[in-house]
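Board notes, transcribed. Complex of a protein with pyridoxal-5'-phosphate.
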Amino acid sequence: MNRQAFLDHYLVDRRQTDSSKWDGMKEKFGEEDLLPMWIADMEFKTCDAITAALTGRCKHGVFGYSMVPESYYKAYSDWMDQRYSFPLKKDWVRFSTGCVTGIAWMIHAYTQPGDACMILTPVYYPFHNVVTNNNRRLVTVDLHYEHGYFTMDYEAIEKTIIENDVKMFVQCSPHNPAGRVWDEEELDQVLAICEKHHVLVVSDEIHQDLVIADKKFIPAAAVSNGRYRDIIVTLSSASKTFNLATLLHSHIIITNDELRARYDQFASGLNRTEVSIMGMLATQAGYEAGSEWLSHVLDTIRDNYIYLKEILNQELPEVTVCELEGTYLAFLDMRGYLSPDEVQHFIQKQCHLAVDYGEWFGANFKGFIRLNLATDPKFVRQAAEIIIEMIKNKKNS
Ligand SMILES: Cc1ncc(COP(=O)(O)O)c(C=O)c1O
């Protein structure tokens, strides 16, 4: 299938389908005629293999209590092995209804009220809320930002851990919205600091399959041949990969026996840790037959990103389009043309775009916007063109 055929087959109009991105815009932004470039899901229908698996179950018509078959674990392990050389043992895997729910459960399983949990900002805003809403102390460390590229500030991380007696680090890998796919050496350094100070690492790897740069995603539990496995719990899902967010199915991977026993003890107090049949069927079908669809999606995201970066570099050289190695979420630093306080009003009222704003991800990132590129290239063009036109008008006025 060529690119156009892929787009023709899979792009879909999501208006009037109760989609948060389109139909929830009024509630979130107070207006409904914006071009939605916010929230992290895709404008593409999921792959045909997944739709067929779900349709088949609908035709059968029974949605009673279900179990996870051996073939599911095999499909999941094969996917992890073939892509990341990280085969999984069935015994390591537990399930939750979402990665953020998984973070909440890990907070309860492994920390006490008032304990400090660290995140590296700017980061996906529910990371902030899930810590504070569960009565833990939120400790943030800003990533180092230079020339549109984010890196970890190891000195600040270690100092913060010591000063705050941090118990848990909620890591985002690949990182939303920084767009980084962490190198093995970077992960090794931060994990070594956590190990030294007895900090448990919860690694949210929901974006693992969405790498557009020429580099490899490394699961935290595979870093340095698994050296840090005993301090890591990994959260992941096929929901970003195959656009399945509301099927509410995600994984918790715990390789260490003692940590797993502690989690199981916690989970025995939860009524529901079995899986949603639709989430499970979709995930298995994606892992078994979704590779080609995914590579078309990645090519589309990459092309959208290259277009956006090139056109903005050319027309608005003072807008910094941050390096996008992974995720489909481009982070743009608008401060070259606009004061941080102007950005929201300018983007919504003059450009008529619905985006995620930098300050949602971290207090020091006001003046950035995040654009979702898992969409029709035509929307990326429209967004770029209106930003260019409005900034040029502003400069000339
Ligand atoms: C890093 C990260 N974790 C988790 C989520 C949401 O996952 P879930 O819907 O499974 O809670 C997102 C969604 O954008 C995300 O970017």
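The pocket of pyridoxal-5'-phosphate is lined by residues 40, 98-100, 124, 172, 176, 204, 206, 237, 239, 245, 250 (CB under 6 Å). The radius of gyration is 21 Å.
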